[in-house]
Design a protein that fits this description.
alpha+beta; four-stranded antiparallel β-sheet; elongated; PHL_dom; PHL domain-containing protein
Length: 82
């Protein structure tokens, strides 16, 4: 039996804030990329932005899709490498 995969990547951008003589690193923005394989046809639904995993499941049919998991893996590698 094949299991459909869901990949969740979180990206956090840090901002440096100077307070007096001290430089503090503060998380500025958090963005998620969620990709889930559809069991019906093998395509991969994609969402990039702020959404919870539970909300993602309901909206999966209305999201942009990639043709297969190979392209999803290539896209994930590009995002992680930067």
């Amino acid at each position: 039996m094949n299991t459909c995969k869901m990949r969740v990547s979180s990206f956090i951008w840090n901002e440096r804030v100077v307070q007096g003589n001290v430089v503090t690193v503060v998380p500025k923005c958090r963005t998620r990329m969620i990709m889930a394989e559809k069991p019906s046809d093998g395509t991969v639904a994609l969402h990039y932005g702020d959404i919870d995993e539970s909300d993602y499941i309901g909206a999966e049919d209305h999201l942009p899709t990639l043709p297969n998991t190979h392209f999803a893996d290539l896209l994930a590698d590009q995002f992680i490498s930067q």
